Structures are given as C-alpha cells and as structure tokens.
Amino acid sequence: MRNKTVQLFIPIIILMSFSILCMINSRLILAQYENYYFKQILWFIIGFLAVIVISKIKRIHFFKYSYIIYGINILFLVLVLFFGKEVNGAKAWFDMAYFSFQPSEFMKLSLLLILCHLSNSLRLRTIKNELKFIGKAILLTIIPAILTFVQPDTGAVIIYFIITTAVLFASCIRYRWFIIGATLLFTSLAALFFLYHNYQDFFLEIFGSSLFYRIDRIMLFNEGSGMQIENAKIAIGNAGIFGNGINSPPIYFPEAPTDFIFALLISNFGYLGALIIIISYIFIFIWFIKVIKRTPKKEHKIFITAFLAMFLFQVMGSILMNIGLLPVIGITLPFLSYGGSSLLLYFICIGMTLKIIKKY
C-alpha cells in the first residue's frame, strides 16, 4: 500500500510544484493574483489533510449516505443562484470571506457516489431493470445539470454527463443502450442547431438568450475565440523549449491561473515544462488503470473508473482548450489550476480511492 501511495503522489507533487510557481508568476499579470500562490499552498495542505481524514472513515460510509450528500449538494446549487457571488457573469460561488466555495465542483462527487450506489443495487440483468437504472441515473443527472446550467457553468454540466456515461459503461449494461443514447443525442443536437440557424427568433423564445449565446460562441469558435485564446496561443508560441522564466511577465490573457493555466505554464517553463506535466498525468492515469484491474468489488471499481473518466476529460479538455483546439467551456486542469473547490474535490476522490484499495 505504501508503494502504491508513493507512486501516485510523486507525479501529484510535481504538478503541485509547477502550480505554485505559476501562481507566483501570475501576480505579474494582475494585482488580484498577488496572493494566489499563498492560497494555493493552503489548499494543498487542506487537501492532504482531507486524504488523512478520509483514511479514518469506513469505506461503507462513502456510499451509504450518498442520497443525503446528493440532497445537500442540490440544496447548495439552488441557494447559490440566490445568494452566490457573481464572477465573470456566472453566479456559481458562495463568498466565504477569504475563500470561495463552488457547489458545482462537489456536485461531481455527489453524483459519482449516488450513481455508484444505484449501480450496485442493480442485481438482475434484465431489460426492465436496466431501463429503470438508466432512467434513475438520467434523472439524478438532469436535476443538477439544469441548476448548474443556469449559473451558467457549461463545463461542469458536461462533466456530470461524462460521469454518468462512465458509470453506465462500467456497470456493464447492454451496449444497445449506448447506441440508442448516442442516436438520441445526435438527433437532439442536430435539431437544436437547425433551429439556431434557421429559426433564431423561435429559438430565443423557447430556449432563451443564454443558450443562444453559448451556441453562438461554439459556432464562432473556428473564426477565433477572442483575446484570451489568441493571447494564450501567442504566449505558447513564444515560449520556446525552456520558456521565459519565473520572473518574466507573461502575455496578458484572462483567467490565466484557472482556465488557462496550461498556457501560463508553457509561457513560464516552455515545452519542456509542458512535457513534464503531460508525463506526470500519464503516470497518474496508468496508476489508476492498474488499480481498476486489481479492484474486485463492483461498487468500488465503478467509482474509480468514473473518477478516472472525469479526470481524463478535464486534463485533455483543458489542454486542448488552452491550445485553441476546443471552445472555452470553463474547466480546470487538475492539481495545476488555481481553485480550492476543484483541488479539494480531487484530493477527496484520491483519498477515497486509497481507502478503497487499502486491503486489495
């Protein structure tokens, strides 16, 4: 167990080190980033403490109280719409003096737990039972997805559905349901974009301006996504092999410590730094693949598989977004991006994973 833990935390510590250095350099971009490095260090400490605390909790409690945890998070998602702090047009945070709390991040864990618990109750592999399972899983996903969508936080909504798809897949239900689901999704998206292109007044009347604006951003993606993407690509292009150094002011682009941390990292440490980061993520991915193969219990295997799917999506999505190959959807890069809610979520999930595999 000790060797397994060391193998996981070596790449995580490497990511954390680069993160802190990037936070230090981000203060040269905007004055509001001045204390980000200190806050990030505090969140890393809190994250490790969370891992220790979770190691003292019985594994059965992770899933036993999943409905209660899910319900509490739904309540937070409702309350944040009324009492949350608005940042860059999104009302997604509770302002808690020195720190902010983002319910949509912890909703990912709540959804993961409740779907794993629901999957574990699937005993008979009949079409009727599988349909019930799929229906319940979709309902449990749609509720937080709607609440999160109106904040708006498109990236979190996508991750909710990534988690649900991974749980359904790991539950070994019939593949026909994925074919049917993909067909329905494609048809719905085709109809949505058809209305957007041909009946915009009707679209606005039915779906409102928020969804129209988000689709508009996607459609304009190939024509350029504005200053943040363009400046991020310029920063990456000018970095070279070793980057511009830790004390060199980076090119300005919004959200550099959060959504565009990968571009900031390359600007500071060059393509060599990016290579080290990618290799670190690969080692984490391989570690989780080995753990999944060695985990015998269904509920535990599904949890780790779905968490890995979420982790992989955020890593790949964030990197591709930073280099201009995906639209900006507001997702963080695990263990690199600034943000206590996101960091704490990943430390909690890792703590739970370590607890799950403790006796295997």
Structure, described:
With 360 residues, the protein is mainly α. The chain has one domain. It contains 13 helices and 3 strands; from the N terminus they run H-H-H-H-E-E-E-H-H-H-H-H-H-H-H-H. The chain has a 3-stranded antiparallel beta sheet with strand order 1-2-3, covered by helices on one side. Helix 5 runs parallel beside helix 7. The protein starts with a helix and ends with a helix. The model has no long low-confidence stretch (mean pLDDT 85).
**Which structural class best describes the helix and strand composition?**
mainly alpha
Distance between the termini: 9 Å
By DSSP, the count of extended strands is 3
Residue stretches low in confidence (pLDDT < 50, at least 5 long) are none
Order of the strands making up the biggest sheet: 1-2-3
Strand content: under 5%
Mean pLDDT: 85
Let me know the largest β-sheet: 3 strands, antiparallel
User: What would the principal axes of the Cα set say about the shape?
Assistant: globular
Helix share bin: over 70%
What's the total helix number? Answer: 13
Q: C-alpha Rg, in Å?
A: 21 Å
| Order of helix and strand elements from N to C terminus | HHHHEEEHHHHHHHHH
User: Number of domains in the coordinates?
Assistant: 1
